[in-house]
Write a structure and sequence with these properties.
With 218 residues, the chain is of the alpha+beta class. The protein contains 7 helices and 8 strands. The chain has an 8-stranded antiparallel sheet with strand order 3-4-6-5-7-2-1-8. The protein is globular and about 40 Å long. The N and C termini lie far apart (38 Å).
Length: 218
């Protein structure tokens, strides 16, 4: 399989669903998300993230030993509601199954503050097999918020430095059903997605499936 240059992080190409403090009118989770440098909690050695989507639910089991920096970043993003209302903007099932990518915030203000919030690379300890989950990036040390789930054995990505940090342990059938009719088209409009968020995607790519809510399972 040839390399796909669009598995990339913000700037190259690769909303928060929060409770309000009673009577305050302040969206607490979004407030936290506006300060990426404050969201650096160390993740448990193993944890599960449940994604409720427009097609059903799936669960990602994360192993910190596989890619500790990636596991920590993902934990903080899920825990604080970053992925809520994010679209699955890049879903490639043909000419052969490849991957589904998501993680651009529907809120342009969040996209702006997270674009420079890069983390260092982890060594590749696991292979990009079907169901394994990996951060997108656009070169060394450029991982931010976008992740992808492999639809097939994409072991060629291992040599390119893409380290999986978890795998889908239930609901892979849901992942397989995510709308793929747009293929690469939405992600070609990367700058518009970054600057306009879900308003742009809802208008131009209305059939995209999306995350309703993502949570760390207790």
């Amino acid at each position: 399989m040839t390399s796909r240059p669009v598995i990339a992080a913000a700037g190259v190409l690769l909303i928060a669903h929060a409770a309000f403090a009673q009577g305050s009118g302040v969206n607490l989770s979004k407030a936290k998300l506006r300060t990426p440098s404050a969201l650096t909690e160390k993740a448990p050695d193993t944890y599960k993230a449940k994604f409720e989507t427009s097609k059903g639910d799936f669960v990602i089991e994360v192993h910190r030993s596989w890619a500790p920096l990636g596991a920590d970043r993902f934990y903080n993003l899920v825990k604080n509601g970053f992925y809520d209302d994010c679209r699955f903007f890049r879903v490639i099932q043909s000419p052969r199954p490849f991957m589904v990518q998501f993680g651009i915030s529907g809120d342009p203000a969040l996209s702006k503050v997270w674009a420079p919030a890069r983390i260092q690379d982890d060594p590749v300890k696991q292979s990009n097999k079907r169901g394994f989950v990996t951060f997108a990036m656009g070169g060394p040390n450029t991982r931010t918020t976008q992740v992808f789930i492999n639809y097939a054995d994409n072991s060629n990505l291992d040599r390119q430095g893409f380290p999986p940090f978890g795998e889908v342990t239930s609901g892979m059938d849901v992942v397989d059903k995510l709308y793929s009719g747009y293929g690469e088209e939405a992600q070609k409009q990367f700058m518009e997605i970054q600057s306009q968020g879900n308003a742009f995607l809802a208008k131009e790519f209305p059939k995209l499936d999306y995350v309703k809510k993502a949570t760390i399972e207790k």
